[in-house]
Write a structure and sequence with these properties.
Blueprint: E1 8-12, H1 18-32, E2 42-46, E3 51-55, E4 59-60, H2 62-65, E5 71-72, H3 75-84, H4 91-111, E6 124-127, H5 137-146, E7 150-153, H6 167-171
Antiparallel strand pairs: 1-3, 2-3, 4-5, 6-7
InterPro entries: Kinase-like_dom_sf, Prot_kinase_dom, Ser-Thr/Tyr_kinase_cat_dom, Ser/Thr_kinase_AS, Ser/Thr_Kinases-Pseudokinases
Pfam families: PK_Tyr_Ser-Thr
Organism: Paramuricea clavata
Length: about 180
């Protein structure tokens, strides 16, 4: 990793058994091959401590609500904060932009033969890095209205191959129909 002072997320393996370690290495291998604006970025892996290093993604409410210091990481937290307070009309466009970002991220994963299998608001990270450091109020308002947030998929779980069969598929039968 380059020492540029950027924050990262360390996803550390809690279990110490061999299967858990293999799963972590498999996840790191998978993540290292993914590059898409709507999928969390892989930064590295630490094999001696069994940890995956990921991009640090957050949404800072300061440009929208003033300097209240609220930051959130997931879409679930973002929506909870917006529900509790006024987010200056962002509500309508949030659903459109977040839905599009999630769809684009899923499309990319599916093209790579990966099914997410744990898609929920907690596993959708949110960011406003594209405008949260701007100082011009008009520029912030413009960027926030055009693209209020960027969503990135994370925590794919055991979702990583073309050989995924859900219990439902395994139990299903196809009837032979003569036409």
């Amino acid at each position: 990793l380059p020492d540029n002072g950027a924050k990262i997320v360390v996803k550390k393996l809690l279990a110490s058994d061999n299967e858990a370690r293999k799963s972590l290495v498999k996840e790191a291998r998978l993540l290292s091959k993914l590059q898409h604006p709507n999928v969390v970025r892989f930064e590295g892996v630490c094999l001696d401590k069994y940890a995956v290093l990921l991009e640090y993604v957050y949404f800072d409410f300061t440009p929208i609500r003033g300097n209240d210091g609220i930051t959130v990481h997931s879409l679930a937290n973002f929506l909870a904060v917006c529900e509790q307070s006024d987010c200056h009309g962002m509500h309508c466009s949030i659903f459109i932009h977040s839905s599009l970002d999630v769809a684009l991220g899923l499309k990319y994963l599916h093209e790579k033969g990966i099914a997410h299998r744990d898609l929920k608001p907690e596993n959708i990270l949110v960011s406003n890095h594209h405008y949260n450091r701007l100082t011009d109020t008009r520029a912030v308002e413009c960027m926030a209205s055009i693209k209020p947030l960027i969503c990135k998929l994370t925590d794919f779980g055991e979702s990583r191959s073309k050989d995924i069969h859900t219990e439902q598929i395994l139990k299903s039968k196809t009837a032979r129909v003569n036409r």
